[in-house]
């Protein structure tokens, strides 16, 4: 036992040394040599026959990167501003091999750098002295987490937190009336849904899925478990997103029709009144789209039993395991999940979830993804509308999931915090908050899964990544409009198939190395190129690279 303890201690000391080495020019020397910009890097698909949108990403000089697309993408700028496409040094990616230390200690160019992650407790950020932009007001920012909304609010009321996420619905009026606190409504478009994986019986039967869609009283769920301002979902995508609500609205609650459909599909009630048994999987993480996950899971369990004669066991899973299992289509029952908009385009909702390469709902449906693929290259909203109507109607007919609610939610901060805000897209930037003291404490819903967000989809992971690792573009604080971050501008050719990004000069990474075009290519290649040696990550899925760009280049054929 003593030997194991010493080995663990030695490992921790080595890790601590490596973390310090990655923390900036004031720490010990980097354990890797900086590579000066000489020969430009590039990554390319053999041809556009692989089906994806990106043909190549190439550095053409030290401060220019050119993205060549296989087809136009009207959402290119919005996607390029998204956190998973953040830039880290090529040398650091190579040093970590795309995993290991990279998952714990990102090296970015942001106003804060990660200096500690104490698993199970907090992540500490320190202001980066050589940041190219305005310095943050607080020298230190601490990210903590609590799954209970009441616990987060108690911390805020006690003054041990400066800002918290996702108030419980019942607490919103009290916060609004408290002069010591400020209520900040979250305008992020979102959806909560009940998902199926059609490779598992009985959910391989579309009539079973349709029956459950008709047999759930979604209005009851919204009325009982969501705050004012929430609404029953008429479509998967909120109507505030252009073309989100093209096509027919979702099924009305009709238990009689649902039971008739189950009878006809060959699932009669047994002597005990039960048609079949299943499981309801969820993670106990409070989100704007699902503020009371445990209560909603039990409500759906009750409705399945009472309305349809389906007996379901409620299964709570650890957050990281749940995300991995559900998004990889490995859960045999139904799962409760949701989505908050990452960028202001319908492709963010539909293409990610219903694209040809997403295994979450089992075998993908060409009736859905073929219309989405065609629509995704059309920049004119009106011209694309018939295709999105076709896709939404196919989603309603085939029921890969049931859209339940578009949830209203609110964060809160101490009244003494200046600049407190919640953006509609992306996460609150700690650097914009002034707590009036040296340390800012921000409490979110759950612990990050990893801090290498090229291979994460979870919002609790994306938030800390966004503080340290910057992207080519950034979203506005109150809109989805993009502006320059590591790029001063990205401009396109006439048909929007070639995007040229001019990079910001004089930017320094947290490890002291200089930012250049090869870092952009290396960061994108690690996620986009399945054959890249750094394409390892946490899960290895690199879901956003695969789904938002219609596939990974150089992926092995099945």
Descriptive report:
The chain has 558 residues and is an alpha+beta fold. It folds into two domains: 237 residues, no CATH class; 215 residues, Dipeptide-binding Protein, Domain 3 (Dipeptide-binding Protein, domain 3, Roll). 30% of the residues lie in helices and 20% in strands. The N terminus is likely disordered.
Strand order of the largest sheet: 4-5-6-16-7-15-8
Shape descriptor reads globular
Low-confidence stretches: 1-28
Category by helix and strand content: alpha+beta
Total of helices = 16
Strand content: 15-25%
- Total domain units: 2
Query: What is the tally of beta strands?
Result: 20
Cα end-to-end separation: 46 Å
Largest sheet: 7 strands, mixed
Please compute the radius of gyration using only Cα atoms.
24 Å
- Compute the average pLDDT: 92
Helix content: 25-40%
Key terms:
558 residues, alpha+beta, Dipeptide-binding Protein, domain 3, six-stranded mixed β-sheet, 20 strands, disordered N terminus
């Amino acid at each position: 036992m003593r030997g194991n303890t010493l080995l663990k201690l030695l490992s921790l000391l080595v890790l601590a040394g490596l973390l310090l080495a990655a923390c900036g020019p004031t720490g010990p020397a980097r354990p890797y040599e900086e590579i000066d910009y000489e020969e430009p890097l590039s990554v390319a698909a053999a041809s556009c026959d692989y089906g994806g949108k990106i043909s190549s990403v190439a550095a053409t000089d030290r401060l220019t990167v050119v993205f060549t697309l296989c087809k136009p993408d009207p959402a290119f700028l919005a996607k390029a501003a998204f956190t998973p496409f953040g830039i880290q040094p090529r040398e650091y990616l190579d040093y970590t091999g795309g995993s290991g230390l990279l998952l714990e200690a990102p090296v970015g160019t942001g106003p804060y750098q990660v200096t500690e992650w104490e698993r199970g407790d907090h992540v500490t950020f320190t202001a980066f002295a050589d940041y190219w932009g305005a310095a943050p007001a607080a020298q230190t920012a601490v990210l903590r987490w609590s799954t209970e909304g009441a616990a987060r609010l108690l911390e805020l009321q006690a003054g041990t937190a400066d800002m918290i996420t996702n108030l419980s619905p019942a607490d919103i009026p009290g916060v609004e009336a408290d002069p010591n606190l400020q209520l900040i409504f979250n305008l992020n478009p979102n959806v909560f849904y009940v998902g199926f994986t059609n490779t598992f019986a009985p959910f391989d039967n579309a009539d079973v899925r349709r029956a459950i869609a008709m047999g759930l009283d979604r209005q009851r769920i919204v009325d009982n478990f969501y705050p004012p301002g929430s609404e029953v979902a008429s479509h998967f995508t909120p109507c505030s997103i252009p073309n989100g609500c093209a096509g027919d609205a979702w099924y009305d609650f009709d238990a009689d029709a649902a039971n008739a459909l189950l009878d006809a599909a060959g699932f009669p009630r047994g002597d005990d009144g039960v048609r079949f048994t299943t499981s309801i999987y969820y993670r106990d993480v409070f989100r704007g789209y699902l503020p009371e996950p445990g209560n909603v899971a039990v409500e759906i369990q009750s409705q399945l039993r009472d309305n349809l004669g389906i007996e379901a066991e409620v299964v709570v899973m650890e957050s990281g395991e749940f995300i991995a299992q559900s998004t990889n289509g490995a859960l045999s029952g139904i799962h409760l999940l949701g989505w908050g908009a990452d960028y202001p385009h319908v492709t963010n909702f539909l293409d990610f979830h219903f694209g040809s390469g997403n295994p979450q709902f089992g075998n993908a449906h060409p009736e859905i993804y073929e219309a989405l693929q065609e629509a995704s290259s059309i920049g004119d909203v009106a011209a694309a509308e018939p295709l999105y109507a076709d896709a939404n109607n196919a989603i309603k007919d085939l029921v890969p999931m049931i859209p339940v609610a578009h949830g209203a939610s609110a964060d809160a901060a101490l009244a003494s915090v200046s600049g407190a805000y919640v953006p509609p897209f992306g996460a609150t930037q700690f650097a914009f908050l002034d707590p009036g003291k040296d340390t800012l404490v921000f409490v979110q819903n759950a612990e990050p899964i990893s801090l290498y967000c090229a291979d994460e989809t979870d919002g609790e992971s994306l938030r800390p990544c966004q503080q340290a690792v910057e992207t080519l573009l950034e979203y506005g604080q109150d809109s989805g409009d993009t502006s320059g971050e590591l790029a001063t501008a990205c401009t396109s050719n006439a048909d929007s198939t070639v995007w040229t990004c001019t990079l910001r000069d004089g930017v320094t990474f947290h490890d002291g190395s200089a930012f250049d075009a090869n870092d952009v290519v290396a960061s994108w290649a690690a996620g986009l190129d399945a054959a890249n040696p750094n394409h390892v990550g946490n899960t290895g899925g690199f879901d956003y690279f695969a789904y938002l760009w219609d596939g990974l280049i150089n992926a092995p054929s099945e």
